[in-house]
Design a protein that fits this description.
The protein is α+β, with helices and mostly antiparallel strands. The protein folds into three domains: 15-107, Immunoglobulin-like; 112-199, Immunoglobulin-like; 217-267, no CATH class. It is 31% helix and 30% strand. It contains six helices and 18 strands. It has a five-stranded mixed sheet, with no helix packed on it. Strands 2-3-8-7-18 form a five-stranded mixed sheet, with no helix packed on it. The protein has a four-stranded antiparallel sheet with strand order 9-12-13-14, with no helix packed on it.
Amino acid sequence: MMLTLSPLSPLLDALAADVAIRRSCRRTMPSVIARENDDHFLVTLPLPGVAPTDIKIEAMDSRMTVRGSSSYRTIDTSFALPDKACVADAVAESIDGLLTIRVPKRPALPPRAVPVSTELDDDSTPNDDASTRPYNITLVAPGLSAVDIDLQVEECMLKVSGGTASTGASIARCIRLPRDANVETARASHVDGILSVTVPKKPPAASTRIEVKGVPTVASVASVAREEADEEFDSQEECAEKMASSTAAPAPEEADEEFDSQEECAEKMGSPQAAEAKDAVTAGEGVTATTDDELAEWEMTEADEA
């Protein structure tokens, strides 16, 4: 029985190896390690077996997506960063299978005071689009007037405070706003003890592609050198063709046309060289060339007559 199955053992080994490779090709989510420093965030991901050229990083708002693939591994993971992370200026590099992403921090914005109006917000236009619909916040503040309320926005935090001794009423609230809240255009109104705050949304941010740098391999260096050599050879070949075409003797008709074109251009320019060339050509019209035999015969005839 063993002798019968022995010819199949190489096929079974190949099948087992193929199954092992297919299992290793499963999509994996590497562990993400993030650290916060004074002026930047540092994110590291282990990506063994994935070349830097096969890694793609996209950032939108404060969220990053890392995708990579090789012959036996596929990686697709996404993670969020704090609001103060400036993902558009992130720098990434992959060395020895470790991806490192450096994300700088945005400079802190100073707190902004939001004036509180005593009139209702007249923006009552219905908006069915959830992507552009503003955020509306309503707080109950009886016994307070608009001048008693201090409303400030710092980063993505809405801070409401105020009080009065006449009624003993007071308010102190802190509300975290969504990432896409445009705090620069926030507005508020206080009517009949009801504080209404309207915060429009920011336009959707475009996706940003982050380039991954890495140590060039021997194959990549050889490929770049080969492309540069091919480009240089094509350039030299093109120059040789141009030189060969310029040194070739032109046909008589083409030469006449070229001369007429040059003469016409020179006349238009009114150069004295063109006038001299024209006079020389005109003076030479109707003159025939004399051979050496004709000249000798004419000299002998002239001597006999003398």
